[in-house]
Amino acid sequence: MTSPAPKTTPASGSAPIPLNFSAPRRGMPPKHFADLDPSEVVSALAEVGLPKFRANQIARQYYSRFNGDPATMTDLPEAQRAVVAEALFPPLMTPLRNVEADDGETRKTLWRLHDGTLLESVLMRYPNRATLCISSQAGCGMACPFCATGQGGLDRNLSVAEMVEQVRNAAAAMERGEVDGESGRLSNIVFMGMGEPLANYKRVLATLRKITAPAPEGFGISQRSVTVSTVGLAPAIRKLADERMSVRLAVSLHTPDDELRDTLVPVNNRWPVAEVLDAARYYADVSGRRVSIEYALIRDVNDHAWRADLLGKKLHRALGSKVHVNVIPLNPTPGSQWDASPRPVQDEFVRRVNEQGVPCTVRDTKGQEIAAACGQLATEA
């Protein structure tokens, strides 16, 4: 069966690859309401002569009504709206286009940031939930060779407000019924878009707190409905565990052996498999959450039966019952010499991991035909 054409609408085994942890090439955006804590908002309002109680009104508009435009905040006096806009709401990001797939259940948005940087986020609607895949960096410095984002390199870190704004816009789109035609609620957030979240640690942590704080200080999304993905920055995994949050950790492992992982996930040269799994076990123990292991299955590269056995054994030994493997059939990217494993190979891989006592399933992939699936985000204007 031929898939319908995506709908585009105007928006409302080689040497290890060097990693890019260099400083951002472009400046961070001006401070925005979503960057500030409540006391900082009060101070900013005082500087322009506005009373303290306006901070609560603005916060309720932003986090409860998903309204980021002071011109339409009707509980503010009309004369003060422009003042609030100038003080707290500098233009940060403009939607360039939306592309839909999966009969309207998936929407990828291309954003232009204040400095011209491009960014993508993906909103996916399921029968019982709506999930937003957000980006934490513009580009990515991890250089995984099978990932389009990693091959494009790192542009810069995103600010807290640039991440929070992705969430606010998605929540507003769900409420307006823009995804799959009926009103709904944004329920889940996954930091699986562009970038390595733990390489932008401080801002990602602040974003997590704003996403999960109850209104009017945040969107009130359950921590248990938020997932942070990492390629395996072991010290940052431990640091995140010590925050005592209950967000889920997802580790992009992709192979159980260091020899291949040094190439597939170059950060493995710093933190090898055993160290990553030890950090993941610490996270599971501290948070009480089961860790997800992400495994992009690549034909004749990491799909061998012995690797499935080794993966199951290592995970069972390191994490016991506190782990689940998500097998992801490799999503095609432009110019890649690799493709997904055949279905029988995939099924055998899953069977063998399960046989080691480790739950293993194949992820339901959305948005592949619009380059919105894992590893495909690449921001073409």
Automatic annotation (TrEMBL):
Needed co-factor(s): [4Fe-4S] cluster
Active site residues according to the UniProt entry: 120, 374
Domain of life: Bacteria
Subcellular locations according to the entry: Cytoplasm
Main location: cytoplasm
Binding site for S-adenosyl-L-methionine: 195-196, 229, 252-254, 331
Alphabetized InterPro entries for the sequence: Aldolase_TIM, Methyltransferase_A, RNA_MTrfase_RlmN, rRNA_lsu_MTrfase_RlmN/Cfr, rSAM, rSAM_sf
Chain segments carrying region Disordered: 1-29
Biased composition range(s): Polar residues: 1-12
Cleavable signal peptide: none
GO cellular component terms given for this protein: cytoplasm
Keyword annotations of the record: 4Fe-4S, Cytoplasm, Disulfide bond, Iron, Iron-sulfur, Metal-binding, Methyltransferase, rRNA processing, S-adenosyl-L-methionine, Transferase, tRNA processing
One Gene Ontology MF term: metal ion binding
SUPFAM superfamilies xref list: Radical SAM enzymes (SSF102114)
UniProt-listed Gene3D superfamilies: 1.10.150.530, Aldolase class I
Coiled coil (UniProt feature): none
Annotated positions binding [4Fe-4S] cluster: 140, 144, 147
Family to which this protein belongs: Belongs to the radical SAM superfamily. RlmN family.
Function: Specifically methylates position 2 of adenine 2503 in 23S rRNA and position 2 of adenine 37 in tRNAs.
Miscellaneous field: Reaction proceeds by a ping-pong mechanism involving intermediate methylation of a conserved cysteine residue.
Protein name as it appears in the record: Probable dual-specificity RNA methyltransferase RlmN
